[in-house]
Amino acid sequence: MVSDSLFRLEDFSIEFDGVPVVDRLSIEIRPGETLALVGESGSGKSVSALGALGLLPGNARVSGGRWLEDSDLDRLSQRQWQALRGGRVGFVFQEPMTSLNPLHTVGKQIGETLRLHQGLSGRAARDRTRELLTQVKLPRPDELLDAWPHQLSGGQRQRVMIAMAIANDPVLLIADEPTTALDVTVQQEILALLAELRSAYGMGMLFITHDLNLVRRNADRVCVLYRGREQETGPVEQVFTTPRSEYTRTLIDAEPSGRAAPLKQRDTLLEAHDLSVNFSRPKRLFSRRPSPFVAVHPLSFTLSRGETLGIVGESGSGKTTLAMAVLRLVRSQGEVHFDNERLDTLTGTTLRKARRRFQVVFQDPYGSLSPRLPVSEIVSEGLRFHHPELSESEVNHRVQVTLEEVGLPQDCASRYPHEFSGGQRQRIAVARALILEPELLILDEPTSALDRSVQKQLVELLRNLQQKRGLSYLFISHDLAVVRAMAHRVMVLKDGRVVEEGRCEEVLGAPQTAYTQALVDASVLTVQSG
Prior knowledge:
The structure is a single chain. This protein has 530 residues and is α/β, with parallel strands linked by helices. The protein folds into two domains: 7-252, P-loop containing nucleotide triphosphate hydrolases (Rossmann fold, 3-Layer(aba) Sandwich), CATH 3.40.50.300; 268-279 and 291-374 and 436-529, Rossmann fold (3-Layer(aba) Sandwich), CATH 3.40.50. Helices cover 38% and strands 24% of the residues. The chain has 22 helices and 20 strands. The strands form four sheets. It has a six-stranded mixed beta sheet, with helices on both faces. Helix 8 crosses helix 21. 40% of the residues are buried.
């Protein structure tokens, strides 16, 4: 590895309207090296990278030194900045669907960066784009040139973002949470691809993440941030083995731990028999109607009172579709029994009344909470609908008691979702579900958008609520560390079929199928057991 510095920040600070958010950060990246910048949400990771590359809004004030190779970045003109970004420096962001333009094809979007930085157009740009798609190991590159972002999977979209980032042979790649929204197996593929490209190009990489397990496997050195201040920097193994900072030790210990409490009873609450979901495909002109797409093949399962059934598998395996079928939110075939009552035959008012007894918590709390309503109205909305007989004071009392039960402060009822952290917003979503006193909660990736320390807190909250209320959970997740801490039993789905099921410790500890073994190998369990 070359010892000369590729990218350097010295006493780098950022203020917004006089409020400091990054305080005298000093880091260095060498050619071919990956430096991980870690910390919880709000620690200053992403804003440091954006500030270093001149991408902050006008109310930001930046001070200190910043260099890329022999270029003093504080001396660049606007035109030089534009040539630098996307040229010598490539970016891979967290959510590719929001980074890609939904109105342009893959080929046009990659071709745009080639035109801006290299002057390529027409056939030359298309040929180079095809090369890039091949380089990031996307199948059928000729077809993908004319594909739209919504037609690709999450992993494919992220590969397109990587192709755009490396299109102009950058010397530095900034990867900002590039795998957070991806399944564990796809995470491994993306990170292996980044490592391969880094080696091939001799790039330096700034890897921004809150997941220390990914850092341990994919970085050379690590810098830990807390509230904009550097806590410690050093080789990955040294920082993990002998952390000097108390905050670093807290991050390392933040893995979801413990196990679900043993079941006290085995009374069946939910039962599905030969449940399946088919979606019709669009018919093309002058052609036969195609056969339907089978999202969930016929399957059966049971869930006892107070039990958690973990449903795991990659994106597209049918996890969420199965849950929506149980909730009667998608059309399905087969039988669903809830507390000895046939749900699949209920309609109208009878179905609405039954829905008071089962609720759902979604993956993205910010997307599932109305930004126009205060917390009190968000939490009480279902209560007012199902219990119109309650007085205003009774509703307010129920709201306050429920918010306290999920660990939210008393003054939060009048505030709006944007005023809360991700973990607090998810607690609001849990409160909204709990206020109707359901017997079943369907939890659809409730921790995937959260930092590890916040995940741990939410897992402990959900386990405590289960013990207190006797709740049953259908827990959907691709994070096997969280599943192991939550579930009594696990059902593994692949392409809409059950490939393995059983007690949690047996399925995750000694998987019987190659697919489950691949999930386990790609998950953080391998790090914990190692």
